[in-house]
Amino acid sequence: MKTKALLTAIATIALLMPSTAMASNHKIRHEVKPKHRIEHRMHVAHRPAIGTRFSHRPVNGKFIIVNRERLWTADGVLYRMIATRTGTTFVVIGYLR
Q: Quick check: pTM over 0.70?
């Protein structure tokens, strides 16, 4: 009787082990890593020319409304968001004073 209970407990633990391992791997795979945004910030250290396109939103910015249009501003530069098939593109349209 004790052997049967012990084997049942070991089998239950063995069945639960792979599912917890898969669940922990699932969380690790879906972490958002801001590495591409840090690299992008290094490329925008200078003042970009009007019409320059970026595939990632520049960091340390905020949304503002200008002439009823929602724009992104970061470091004194205004960006217009354009939806494309591959994602959102940010285009430089002007500068803040």
A: no
